From TrEMBL:
Protein name per the record: Methyltransferase regulatory domain-containing protein
Span of domain PKMT C-terminal winged helix: 419-516
Gene Ontology biological process: methylation
Entry keyword annotation includes S-adenosyl-L-methionine: no
Family annotation (Pfam families): Methyltransf_25 (PF13649), MethyTransf_Reg (PF10119), WHD_PKMT (PF21782)
InterPro entries in UniProt: CFA/CMAS (IPR050723), Methyltransf_25 (IPR041698), MeTrfase_reg_dom_prd (IPR018773), SAM-dependent_MTases_sf (IPR029063), WHD_PKMT (IPR048976)
Species this protein is from: Thiothrix litoralis
The Methyltransferase domain, residue ranges: 42-140
Length: 519
């Protein structure tokens, strides 16, 4: 069995949970004096084309980044991007993890291994853990993601199917096409299926049919794909003098995510790590994103909420429906990927509305509380405006679900654009490279369609908004770029001008909210 890393470039997007700012904030909650993300060293093992690491280097110019990737073809792509952007603080190297050592690459405040640990042989896994211990600074943190038992067993059944279906096929394109045909056949066969396991498989098939080809090939048809019990991972980490801190999905640490009967059944398990293991069994988790530190580092297992209120906050949410700031009726906020988030306390609602208005700007807690309290009072909810502790509690809950983000350092960007809007060189380059998404200032994914990609490339600061609109109208008429929804056939003259103008202004708002427009 072969892997396809040279034949098909792996789609590497920014992963917000791996960002040193996110890891630093998590570590502080557990008593670790993590290094500021503004001045740190970061190592990524399996950095592919640099899609995760390059945006970090762009936005954190005083920090240093090193990416190591086995595929020379992928490193070459990343190096060309680094060269074009003239980034002096990042180095992408071709390298074998087995041949790395601390004497050569040095010490790092943050180490990232996303999508690597489960997909390599045992010897390489051991080396990853050894490198992590040897290369971590005393207060450093490592992020390692991996497939998890028992939940992976259901997804593993699809891997069994795809390995069988493609057993006599060679080449990435042929393997992919054969795998898609097999998935479509299984999808048809499962129509009307009643078992929960079959519903799970149907959902995964739907995801795979829409996913980038690289995900299917590298996840389901890779030569190695291993899953572990959480307790097994902890034991392996412990042998290398590493200890577990938390998950980047912080809410998974708390049994409030379980049903009441499940909470009762696990209530007598005092060891928090054993408790997490049992939660995996109950919830059938299939994947973990674990944060580790050195075993000799003192760790506070009880999260310090006072530390949390010293952060700066952001949230990229949209209100659905009415505000309801004078009562505790739930309101719905939509996340960037349209998941619904129910919020009840008026102060929390008002705080999220403020974060929505100013994103990507990051207020501190006192500013956020003051703005929210004023808004609640003005709406007639005076009785709720003084409930500071309730805001702290609900804000932390939202943070634990990654609906709200917490930062050690502020972002002062406002959702505005100048008379001559100019996108960052990073965003313009990503669009010009044909990427289907770009990295936001918060290291999140912003998807692009053909029109938004074209507009982003044209934001070089040389045109006003009316001039951009005129230019894009000419391009649409010439057939060089479509407008969203493919409505050119029904739109002409004043209608076309109105359509293009509305789209440009909407997208400029979106770009500004994602920190893609220079001020």
């Amino acid at each position: 069995m072969v892997d396809f890393y040279d034949e098909l470039t792996y789609e590497t997007n920014p992963f917000p949970e791996t960002h040193p700012g996110n890891l630093a904030a998590l570590g502080r909650l557990f008593g670790i004096q993590t290094t500021s993300p503004q001045q740190c060293r970061v190592l990524e093992l399996g950095s592919a084309t640099g899609g995760n690491l390059i945006p970090m280097a762009w936005h954190l110019p005083q920090s240093e980044f090193v990416g190591v990737e086995l595929s020379a073809a992928q490193v070459d792509i990343g190096q060309r991007i680094v060269s074009t952007l003239e980034l002096p603080n990042i180095r992408l190297e071709v390298g074998d993890i087995l041949e790395l050592d601390a004497a050569r690459i040095g010490q790092f405040d943050y180490i990232i291994a996303h999508g690597v640990y489960s997909w390599v042989p045992p010897l390489v896994r051991e080396k990853i853990l050894q490198l992590t211990r040897d290369c971590l600074t005393p207060h450093g943190l490592a992020y390692i993601s991996y497939n998890l038992l028992p939940g992976w067993r259901m997804r593993g059944s699809l891997r069994d199917l795809l390995l069988h279906a493609t057993r006599e096929v060679t080449g990435a394109a042929a393997k992919y096409n054969t795998a898609i045909a097999a998935l479509e056949r299984l999808q048809q066969a499962l129509q009307g299926a009643a078992a929960d396991s079959q519903h799970y498989v149907q959902k995964e098939i739907t995801y795979l049919l829409a996913a980038h080809p690289s995900y299917l090939l590298h996840e389901y048809l890779a030569g190695e794909n291993n899953a572990f019990l959480f307790s097994e991972f902890l034991a392996d980490a412990g042998r290398h003098e590493l200890q577990y801190v938390c998950e980047t999905d912080l809410h998974t640490l708390f049994d409030t995510t379980l049903s009441q009967p499940a909470q009762t059944a696990l209530a007598d398990i005092e060891d928090p790590l054993q408790h997490e293991q049992w939660m995996d069994f109950v919830q059938m988790r299939a994947f973990r994103k674990s944060v580790l530190c050195r075993a000799d580092l003192p760790l506070e297992r009880a999260i310090d909420i006072d530390v949390f209120t010293a952060y700066f906050y952001s949230a990229n949410l949209r209100l659905k429906g009415k505000e309801n700031l004078n009562n505790t009726k739930p309101v719905i906020f939509l996340t960037a990927d349209n998941n619904e988030l129910s919020v009840t306390h008026p102060l929390s609602k008002a705080a999220l509305l403020y974060l929505q208005d100013v994103h990507p700007y990051t207020p501190d807690f006192e500013e956020l509380y003051a703005k929210a309290a004023t808004k609640v009072r003005q709406a007639g909810g005076k009785a709720f405006a003084e409930a500071r502790s309730e805001l702290v509690s609900e804000l932390f809950s939202l943070y634990s679900y990654r609906a709200v983000y917490a930062h050690l350092t502020p972002c002062l960007h406002r959702p505005e654009w100048p008379e001559h809007p100019q996108a960052t060189a990073l965003a313009r380059l990503q669009a010009a490279q044909g990427w289907e998404c770009v990295a936001s200032i918060r290291h999140q994914v912003m998807s692009l369609d053909s029109f938004s990609s074209y507009l982003l490339q044209e934001l070089d600061g040389s045109r006003t908004v009316p001039e951009l609109v005129s230019y894009l109208i000419a391009e649409v008429v010439a057939g060089n770029v479509p407008i969203p929804g493919g409505r050119q056939a029904q739109t002409s003259g004043k209608g076309l001008e109105k359509e293009i103008s509305a789209n440009v202004k909407h997208l400029l708002n979106v770009f500004a909210r994602h920190g893609l427009v220079q001020h």
